[in-house]
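Subject: design request, 284 residues
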């Protein structure tokens, strides 16, 4: 059994290489579009959380790699689809032209679909006992579907949605993948009590993370965020920021952040808490 000794920076370097290796070297622009979107960068928070969750649960081998890669493949796919003109119509992503701007809408749709399918293929290669692998697949599949539902709720949102309804959108659209990431470690050691807690914590992280995104969208420039800003306002989509106002939204974000850090440390998920703390330092 190979022991994990790499730092977060080592992990990210290896992750970026593995992500590129996932896409076959075939003479198709769709494959180029997938590689382009995967190479655009980003904080890679989700795969970092997968690894942290496994370390927090005492996993000493490299069994975190498949779920870490799978979640980033899917997340990248969701960004490609989000940026399309019929959805958010965002021309930039991670400081670069969006996939559809670079390769066209047709290839962007195919690239997003390809990354989603590839995420399941990668996850299927996880070296786990059958029961754990089945549970991992179920949780990932459920998370992926919730992201779709959250996106649909966002696209079809009515201007008069209340705060509770908007928070549910955030739990699905953003929180579902965080729930998966935090739950990977508990799944691997079959700790169902901790598993249930991480699912709930992931939802809370999703609300906090989306609030931060709303605040950045309202207060920062495209150059500072690396993506098109002001789309929610232009499309008249309801957000917690719009309901609460800047000051109350920032206060809620701060309270959620502290609650998440406290809960993770209470469960002795120190590596996971460190990832969220680093993310919180960026702020708006």
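Subject: RE: design request

Done. Sequence follows.
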């Amino acid at each position: 059994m190979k022991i994990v000794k790499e730092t977060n920076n080592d992990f990210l370097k290896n992750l970026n290489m593995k992500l590129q290796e996932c896409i076959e070297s075939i003479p198709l622009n769709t494959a180029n579009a997938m590689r382009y979107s995967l190479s655009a960068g980003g904080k890679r928070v989700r795969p970092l959380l997968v690894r942290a969750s496994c370390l927090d649960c005492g996993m000493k081998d490299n069994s975190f790699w498949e779920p870490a890669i799978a979640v980033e493949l899917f997340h990248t796919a969701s960004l490609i689809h989000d940026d399309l003109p019929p959805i958010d119509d965002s021309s930039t992503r991670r400081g670069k032209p969006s996939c559809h701007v670079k390769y066209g809408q047709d290839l962007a749709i195919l690239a997003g679909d390809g990354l989603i399918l590839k995420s399941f293929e990668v996850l299927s290669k996880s070296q786990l006992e059958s029961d754990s692998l089945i549970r991992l697949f179920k949780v990932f599949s459920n998370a992926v579907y919730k992201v779709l539902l959250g996106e649909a709720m966002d696209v079809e949102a009515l201007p008069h949605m209340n705060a509770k309804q908007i928070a549910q959108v955030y739990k699905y659209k953003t929180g579902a993948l965080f729930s998966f990431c935090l739950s990977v470690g508990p799944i691997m050691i079959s700790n169902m009590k901790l598993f249930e807690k991480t699912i709930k914590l992931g939802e809370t992280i999703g609300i906090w993370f989306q609030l931060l995104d709303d605040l950045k969208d309202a207060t920062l420039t495209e150059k500072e965020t690396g993506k098109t800003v002001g789309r929610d306002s232009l499309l008249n989509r309801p957000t917690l920021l719009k309901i609460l106002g800047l000051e109350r939204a920032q206060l809620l974000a701060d309270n959620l952040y502290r609650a998440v850090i406290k809960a993770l440390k209470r469960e002795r998920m120190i590596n996971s808490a460190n990832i969220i703390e680093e993310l919180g330092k960026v702020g708006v």
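The chain has a mean pLDDT of 91.
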